[in-house]
Amino acid sequence: MSENTTDQFFKSTVLGHPAGLFVLFFTEMWERFSFYGMRSLLILFLTASFTDGGWEWTRENASALFGSYVGLVYLSTMLGGYFADKVIGFRWAVVVGATLMTLGHASMAVETEFSIYLGLVLLVFGNGFFKPNMTSIVSEMYKDRPEKKDGAYTLFYMGVNAGAFFGILLCGYLGEKVGWTYGFGLAGIFMFFGMLQFWLSQDIFGDIGLKPNKESKAKAEALDTDKRNPFSSIQLAAIAFSSILALLWLVNDPASKISGGKVNIFSFLGPNGNAIAIVSALVVFIILLIYRFTQYSKITKEKLIAVTFFAFLTIFFWAIFEQSPNSLTIFASDYTDRVLTGNWSVVFLVMNSLITILPLVIITWVLILLFKQTFKLYALANIILSVSFIIIWAIAIWMLTKDYYTAGYLSLSDSTLQALKIDKVTTALTEVPATWFSTLNSLFIISLAPLFSKWWESKYNPSANLKYGIGMGLLALGMACVAFGASGIEAGAKTASVSMIWLILVYLFHTMAELCISPVGLSYVSKLVPARMIAFMFGVWYLAVAIGMKGAGMFGENIDKIANEHGLSYFFWMLTIISIVVALFSVAMTPVIKKLMHGVR
């Protein structure tokens, strides 16, 4: 058997899949742990008072910075994907990305003004190199086993959600309850572990992801027989113009607000310089996109228009869905009654123990299965991975011990408290961290994803437009829950004590919305776009996601202004109405888009 065939990967399997998939599983898990762990803390840290170790920023400035950060994260994937494909290969891209993110988290843990900004820049570029290339390795590993690919991605995304869950749970807990440095620092430690175990296990991937050479480039070109439609010099100049202008705007928007106008790249355009810059960038890009569409056959052009339609809807989805680490986290922190007493305290402690320990047990079991297959060849990588899990188990048990003690259900001696670095308490208290609610998204995804997968595979599988309509409708339902819950909060109020049930319902409905839209959208890009255009249209798709992420920040910037004038409930009702309008628009366009898709479901 040829050494380069993908059959070699199936000689050593775990749960019926190549052991290499689980190396990627754990690498991705620690990367998502670090990304979501830091993200859950960023807004809280920026808006916390000086006495609580924060920067005491306004919510407007914090949301502006947050929106630009997550927007740049998605835009940077195009840069990382290009370098991986053309210059350094998938493996080096993953290592470079992981290294940059490790340094970024370490920088943020220092908590100076310079180090926080430096950390965010490193994280943006790190994500750009890392994010697109992990899935590329999975795809290459299964290129000759398409029937196994769905199962592989299901397992891979279980790692994604496991990392997100534990990152938010543990980094969020340490950041809120112990200190911001510990939360930011823990994210970096596990990114470092993920990078080491990937690097030390890389031979398990055979020739996949190596640095491109003349032979591999010639082979790729020979396999690609599609007719080319190269970009002209003018088109490349238009792309450069709109890209540079958009990047400058993403940086300048928060900088001009945070500095009070002292830093403003577009001041020469007048008081509305920021708006003029981004509108100019979008107009140039849209004109280019329309022109490119005219260069293709009627069927290809119509399919591309359909993809662009879904990308447009995706902007609104992410702008509202990504209120989770933004306005919804603020709502959890300042407007939600998170103190539990009596039976409710016991219920939360038991439930939190179960959702912490059971996933750890399952993932540890998978880790042991991987050890059995790979320890002889990759002993050091497995040792590093086991050390990371020992640390996770220790932190999880410490967290639960602290919670039971502070709630009054566990007695600890002074010496034990000192050894465990737990502050002595005289009054029993169970307070749910504000970041805890964000963990519900990952839990609901793991629980509900199989049900939605079965639905999509059944005869009741809805059309693309209807899926988007259902998703946006569920998004509206979630926002309506929190809007209703906030209805008793008076205009201008800075704190309140709303029931936690409204936030739990928000995350339930929003997770269902995500399952309708997020994976489905990417699937339609791959189904509708010709192979020769796939890279460009994925770029358009991630541009839409980036715009949505920045839109989430822009919505969040206005929460105080709207809440002071009309009440907090009004803000969430606005997002509800926008979601309903987009849902109805998607359903109404069904006949038009169905025709443009030419039978693709």
From TrEMBL:
<keyword id="KW-1133">Transmembrane helix</keyword>
<feature type="transmembrane region" description="Helical">
    <location>
        <begin position="234"/>
        <end position="252"/>
    </location>
</feature>
<dbReference type="InterPro" id="IPR050171">
    <property type="entry name" value="MFS_Transporters"/>
</dbReference>
<protein>
    <submittedName>
        <fullName>Proton-dependent oligopeptide transporter, POT family</fullName>
    </submittedName>
</protein>
<keyword id="KW-0472">Membrane</keyword>
<dbReference type="GO" id="GO:1904680">
    <property type="term" value="F:peptide transmembrane transporter activity"/>
</dbReference>
<dbReference type="InterPro" id="IPR018456">
    <property type="entry name" value="PTR2_symporter_CS"/>
</dbReference>
<dbReference type="InterPro" id="IPR005279">
    <property type="entry name" value="Dipep/tripep_permease"/>
</dbReference>
<keyword id="KW-0813">Transport</keyword>
<feature type="transmembrane region" description="Helical">
    <location>
        <begin position="341"/>
        <end position="370"/>
    </location>
</feature>
<dbReference type="InterPro" id="IPR000109">
    <property type="entry name" value="POT_fam"/>
</dbReference>
<feature type="transmembrane region" description="Helical">
    <location>
        <begin position="377"/>
        <end position="400"/>
    </location>
</feature>
<keyword id="KW-0812">Transmembrane</keyword>
<feature type="transmembrane region" description="Helical">
    <location>
        <begin position="534"/>
        <end position="555"/>
    </location>
</feature>
<keyword id="KW-0653">Protein transport</keyword>
<dbReference type="GO" id="GO:0005886">
    <property type="term" value="C:plasma membrane"/>
</dbReference>
<feature type="transmembrane region" description="Helical">
    <location>
        <begin position="303"/>
        <end position="321"/>
    </location>
</feature>
<dbReference type="Pfam" id="PF00854">
    <property type="entry name" value="PTR2"/>
</dbReference>
<comment type="similarity">
    <text>Belongs to the major facilitator superfamily. Proton-dependent oligopeptide transporter (POT/PTR) (TC 2.A.17) family.</text>
</comment>
<feature type="transmembrane region" description="Helical">
    <location>
        <begin position="90"/>
        <end position="108"/>
    </location>
</feature>
<keyword id="KW-0571">Peptide transport</keyword>
<feature type="transmembrane region" description="Helical">
    <location>
        <begin position="570"/>
        <end position="593"/>
    </location>
</feature>
<dbReference type="InterPro" id="IPR036259">
    <property type="entry name" value="MFS_trans_sf"/>
</dbReference>
<dbReference type="GO" id="GO:0006857">
    <property type="term" value="P:oligopeptide transport"/>
</dbReference>
<feature type="transmembrane region" description="Helical">
    <location>
        <begin position="114"/>
        <end position="130"/>
    </location>
</feature>
<feature type="transmembrane region" description="Helical">
    <location>
        <begin position="468"/>
        <end position="489"/>
    </location>
</feature>
<keyword id="KW-1003">Cell membrane</keyword>
<feature type="transmembrane region" description="Helical">
    <location>
        <begin position="501"/>
        <end position="522"/>
    </location>
</feature>
<feature type="transmembrane region" description="Helical">
    <location>
        <begin position="62"/>
        <end position="83"/>
    </location>
</feature>
<feature type="transmembrane region" description="Helical">
    <location>
        <begin position="272"/>
        <end position="291"/>
    </location>
</feature>
<feature type="transmembrane region" description="Helical">
    <location>
        <begin position="181"/>
        <end position="200"/>
    </location>
</feature>
<feature type="transmembrane region" description="Helical">
    <location>
        <begin position="434"/>
        <end position="456"/>
    </location>
</feature>
<feature type="transmembrane region" description="Helical">
    <location>
        <begin position="151"/>
        <end position="175"/>
    </location>
</feature>
